[in-house]
Amino acid sequence: MELFKMAKEAMAMKSKFGEMDKKLKSIFVDTEHKGIKIQANAKCEFLSLELPQNIFSEDKDKAQKLILDAFNEASKKSQEQMAQTSKEMMGGMNIPGLS
Hints:
- There is one protein chain.
- The chain is of the alpha+beta class.
- It is built from 2 helices and 3 strands, in the order αβββα.
- The chain has a 3-stranded antiparallel beta sheet with strand order 1-2-3.
- The two termini are 31 Å apart.
């Protein structure tokens, strides 16, 4: 009996993770850092990048740093949104890595 109950709970959790995956893909996070615009979803998948025209007039090293900084900021915002959404959807389940 216990094995059946565990299997049923595992299937329910798998379904919940599938729902969460769809939800995270549908939440968009927009970031702007010094004129560089990046859109990502809450799964930390980058969807678009818009560079200002003046980025090409910058020193190459400076431009690369600005772009990396923008991606790091977008990644951080995306991860924060992922954590918040996961916490809401999991309803208090203590899952390592998501809390």
